[in-house]
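hey so u asked for the seq, here:
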Amino acid sequence: MTGSYFHHANVGHLLKSRARENHILYNRLTDETGGRASYELEFPNGGTAYVIGNIIEQSATTENPTLISFGAEGYKTPKNALYLINNTLVDHRPGNGMFLAVKPGASGITAYNNLLLGKRLLNTGLDGLFVNNPNVDATSFVLSDRHDYRIARGSGLERTYVAPPSIKETGGPTLAPQQEYVHPAATRRLTGTPTLPGARQTMAPDLPSTR
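ran it, structure tokens below
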């Protein structure tokens, strides 16, 4: 799933997959005002999931406090690994939601360079490789109230990107972001090495507009 826009769910999940291998790359999964989604992203039976460069937002009226769920219904494959790289995760639930829930028994969790707009840590109660996943506030973005999650100049996030490990030897893809999401449903290829955490690497505006 690449360059897609899911929003305003009515009780169900924004995106759910039982596939053995998942590539969720450079999308916008935002429940937004009035949305009543359960999970924003769910892998109920685990598998291998590459979640890279997505904007994922939980609304204030969510039906479930968790944004991303992995393995909630039991693992069905020998390898159950989640790679969560350079996503912007936004929690608007009153009383604080949970960014990530993983059922015990996963092969591994690798999380690098995710930006967290919310109060909880990404690795609350979880084991795995968690590197450079800072909690930030709305001033770190150009205009988060309108879902413009470009990094604001002077945010202090410039050049804080940490290169994730290579998994090519195991047949996996490059974990470093190669593109970025452009609203309303497209992607833009990056021309240089990533320098920022989060889903957006450039200050180029979305066309026709960011909304």
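DSSP finds no helices and 19 strands in the chain. The chain has one domain: 5-189.
lmk if thats what u needed
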